[in-house]
What we know:
The chain is α+β, with helices and mostly antiparallel strands and 488 residues long. The protein folds into four domains: 4-95, Uridine Diphospho-n-acetylenolpyruvylglucosamine Reductase, domain 2 (2-Layer Sandwich), CATH 3.30.43.10; 102-220, Uridine Diphospho-n-acetylenolpyruvylglucosamine Reductase, domain 3 (2-Layer Sandwich), CATH 3.30.465.10; 222-341, Alpha-Beta Plaits, CATH 3.30.70.2190; 347-445, Alpha-Beta Plaits, CATH 3.30.70. It has 15 helices and 18 strands. It has helices at 4-17, 26-29, 53-66, 120-129, 146-151, 159-162, 197-201, 235-249, 261-270, 297-313, 326-337, 339-346, 361-375, 408-436, 452-474, and strands at 22-23, 47-48, 69-73, 91-95, 102-106, 111-115, 132-133, 169-176, 181-184, 209-217, 219-220, 224-232, 253-259, 285-293, 319-322, 354-355, 380-386, 391-397. Strands 15-12-14-13-17-18-16 form a seven-stranded antiparallel β-sheet, sandwiched between helices. The model has no long low-confidence stretch (mean pLDDT 97). D-malate binds at residues 79, 139, 340, 385, 393.
Amino acid sequence: MPSASVQEFLHDLLQQLGPACLKTDPSLISGHLVDWRGRYQGRASAVLFPDSTQQVAQMVRLASKHRVGLVPQGGNTGLTGASVPDDSGEQLVLSLSRLQAIRAVDQANKTMTLEAGVTLAKAQEQAEALGLLFPLTLPSRGSATIGGNLATNCGGTAVLRYGNARALCLGLEVVTASGDIWSGLRGLRKDNTGYDLRDLFIGSEGTLGVITAAVLALSPRPAALMTALAKVSSVESAVGLLGLAQSKAAAQLTGFELMTWSSLDLVSQYFPALAQPIKGMGSADLVLLEISSPSGEAEAVALLEDILSRALEAKLVEDALVAQSIQQAQTFWDIRDHITLASSEDGHQIKHDIGLPISCIPEFMTAMRQELQDLLPGVRIINFGHIGDGNLHYNVACPVRPESWADRGQRQKACADFMHAHEDEIHRRVHDRVVSLGGSISAEHGLGVMRRDEAAYYKGPVEIGLMRAIKISLDPLNILNPGKVVLV
Ligand code: MLT
Ligand code: ZN
């Protein structure tokens, strides 16, 4: 039974906005209470579905009046538990999924103004219809929403060329914790008029305000995007290949992703048809390179071939496969995009989202592998990600038990048991090493609840004190996504 304040909130909400603005049926709301990996299970008596910014503002005003915590939620594709309620049953989910409007497009200014619930895939299609490119891209683009992308300042696979979500947003509309509406929907590339509120709300994971709409910056659309896979014998070679590719392709290098053998092996096991193109490459670590070309496919292929033949000569690469068509280029991305899905099919892993100076990555990987193998012999390191940005998803999974691995239930139980037994120690070891090398414990996924305490541990009192001061000043009643990012 929810507390009296939650009941009074729901009563007032129904009076003001009617029954269409919320759902309470457990079978209809259960998917909103757990993250997609099934790692964070919360409780809530209702999910709110505002259909406009004004309704969001009304809901936040009521939440403030009754002191009820609201958890803003977009596509619920996050990886740190930021978009699900805690297990108190006292918080309510505020879904932005009905805010679907394309409010404006400005072709000459290369901008479009979208509401928060528009999916990333739809935003990309809208840009394409204008003959332009919205370059942010993620494996979860079909469900992830623009509001969530900005609230988490997500990264993805095109950061190397275009920057992360923050770099692609010019203006915001935000409902503040007092239920006011800040209309900052400016399509300006230069606006130096005091504190940058837009940058404060981006990446705040719904703890400072609710993003309801945004002005997104678009880019010219390249005539072609082509990919290649390069087999590397070491991470030093991958870093060397990055330098070579950047020196030859400069800004035309739009993607540079590492897929170690252990991550490719999971795709081969759980999505064998997708892994078909890499069958002949052996048990090797691969780099996926993507090149964009303003003139067409042939130029992109020629540039990739030039880079790879130099890399073969310099012994940075042992073998390579250049896509010969846009369709084949997409099949290489499909392998990359399915690593997380294959991982989740395998079972829980101890996940990390680390950022390192690129120069430190080889040292990190060699020393960390040794340390983890000494600690837990046979442990699997599922390491992949945006090595071109210095961002790796350095995930740790339990050793395979051949006798029970084919049985999904037993496998998933073994993975979950391993995670619960070793998560804290492995996080500490990985993060200690990352921080000692000048790195970050969350390069693109944010803090949510998963990394909140780790961040407090590593950031120290001054930085955390400043973050708390901002939170308290913008949300003094702690209404917005309480318990996420920083504790107050
Ligand atoms: C990715 O790069 O695939 C995403 O960040 C998801 C993940 O880390 O699992
Ligand atoms: Zn990623």
